[in-house]
Amino acid sequence: MPTVQIKAQLTTRQLLKAVAQMPQEDLDRFAEQVAVLRANQRAPRLSPAESGLLERINQGLAAREQERFDELVAKREIEDLGEDENAEYLRLTTLIEALNVERIKALVELARARRSTRHERVEIIGRSRGARARAPLDPPRRDAGSGNHDSGQCLTPAPAPS
Q1: Into how many domains does the chain fold?
Q2: Is residue 134 one of the residues assigned to a domain?
Q3: How far apart are CA 129 and CA 150, in angstroms?
Q4: Are residues 19 and 53 in the same domain?
Q5: Does 122 share its domain with 55?
Q6: How much is the pTM?
Q7: Residue-level pLDDT, tens digit, the chain, 162 residues
Q8: Which of 19, 22, 146, 157 is the most exposed place for a label (fewest CB within 10 A)?
């Protein structure tokens, strides 16, 4: 990268004049570095406590467990679960339920830490409902005469009324 001579203290206009002297390739690289610097300055900073809470909020099943759970849900919907698979399904459902409980607790802690209003907390919790796997509570049922299946309710609690 070539060196550009500039005064020790620059106005914005002087800095732009110095940058204008740069060859195109160096200017492109410089512009990328400025964009990264700008993004870093604008990015919100999280405290270690908030980072820990976000890790808890985003905790989910391992990819392999999630895939297996999805397979079991599909089999359950067509009423094709064997005894061993049903036990595995129940084990994963219990694990998902526990993860959802921890997620909600962490969401509430984060909302309190950010001093959000009750309405904002309910909104945050409501948005998190679809973020992770949810296990149906009830067995699948057929709608009368339609042949449609209802996969049941999800384990994530409904938001409290405002």
Answers
A1: 2
A2: yes
A3: 18
A4: no
A5: yes
A6: 0.51
A7: 566 665 568 888 988 998 999 999 999 999 999 998 888 888 777 888 888 998 999 898 999 999 999 999 999 999 999 999 999 999 999 999 999 999 999 988 888 888 877 777 667 666 655 544 444 444 444 344 444 333 333 334 444 444
A8: 146
